Amino acid sequence: MSNLKNFLFTSESVSEGHPDKVSDRISDMVVDNYLAGDPFSRVACETLTTTNKVILAGEVRGPEIKDEDLIQKVRNCIKDIGYDQDGFTWKEATKIECYLHSQSSDIAMGVDASGNKDEGAGDQGIMFGYACNETEDLMPAPIQYSHKILRLMAADRKSGKLKSIEPDSKSQVTFEYVDGKPVKVKSVVISSQHSADVNQSQVKELLRPYLLRSIPEKFLKDFNEDEFYVNPTGNFVIGGPDGDCGLTGRKIIVDTYGGAAPHGGGAFSGKDPTKVDRSAAYAARYIAKNIVASKITDKCLIQLAYAIGVSKPLSIYVDLFDNDLDKNKFVTEKISENFDLSARGIREMLCLHKPIYEKTAAYGHFGRAPEEDGSFSWEKIDKKGVFFK
């Protein structure tokens, strides 16, 4: 985030019905189904969604799963999201094609453990983790409240409480920062697909409660009604994959920190945990969150770098944003002493071999509550004591 003290900063989120998020959901469903059959499965699944068509492609190694079984589970995903429209539906009118094939033997050889060689990273690359004390979940405020607006809308839409609103939605929240801290909301944008029986003013009134329920009142003092934008381009009846083609992995900033921190470039969805694009980003968040939870700093950025087939990270970078070299050295040493950041070490530390990924596909991979089934294990703050001085 900016080194300025006073500034405006904006982040956006998209709903589970956004075309790219439909694709992410389906790809992560495939990951979960393979991991449920074999926790050591390898999956790299990409999904394309468009008007009444879904295409799966990629590489897998694991249990035998029939195409027709996966196709039915794709339909279940679409139904749960809420699509049953002329241009995109969970029913037979939407054609689903599956082109998953066996993982490359060259990649498998580099990643697999053998002899004295430990399990290697599934790809090269850099991954970032970030945490800050702007919210209770130690996330940047703009992205966290953007997510919350859409999450509450989706819950009420599915329960039937919110009528005339369809699955495809986006939100955007701009905060004013003073002395580097968020002090008030400057503007909010919500764009949502809706049924043809409501007009724009009705849509605005339907969505206003979600702005008020999502953002703490202290940030909405003196909020200017003119800065609340709903469907600013007008009608939004045609949406979802019928309105715009969706692809896995195109919402990586929504998935992470809303632009408040760097991103290594690799997407998460559709990848098993040997792919450090996913697992090392989770580990970096885990470390950063525990550092901030220890109150040793207000915000923390971690960068990890890997090479395909190499177990350990090539580098670990820590930024505490306070130019305290002794503290930075202390934190770096504690990371090396207490966190195994090899590909295998991350998977075992965070129990990433479980089928826990489908629920990560919408509303952010970070800032979520850890669950009993192991989901969002990287959000635990059970290591904050490591960083007490």
Structural class: alpha+beta
Mean pLDDT: 94
Rg estimate, integer Å: 21 Å
Basic shape: flat
Distance between the termini: 27 Å
Strand order of the largest sheet: 1-8-9-10
Unreliable stretches (pLDDT < 50, length at least 5) are: none
Which percent bin holds the helix content? 25-40%
Residue share in β-strands = 15-25%
Tally of strands: 13
Q: Which series of helices and strands comes N to C?
A: EHEEHEEEHEHEEHEHEHHEEHH
| Largest β-sheet summary | 4 strands, mixed
What is the helix tally? 10
Structure characteristics:
389 residues, alpha+beta, flat, 24% strand
How would you characterize the overall build of this protein?
- It is a single chain.
- With 389 residues, the chain is an alpha+beta fold.
- The model has no long low-confidence stretch (mean pLDDT 94).
- The protein has helices spanning 19-37, 67-81, 105-111, 141-159, 200-214, 240-243, 252-255, 276-293, 325-338, 343-349; strands spanning 7-14, 42-50, 53-61, 84-85, 88-89, 95-102, 125-132, 165-178, 181-194, 228-230, 246-247, 299-306, 315-319.
- It has a four-stranded mixed sheet with strand order 1-8-9-10.
- The two termini are 27 Å apart.
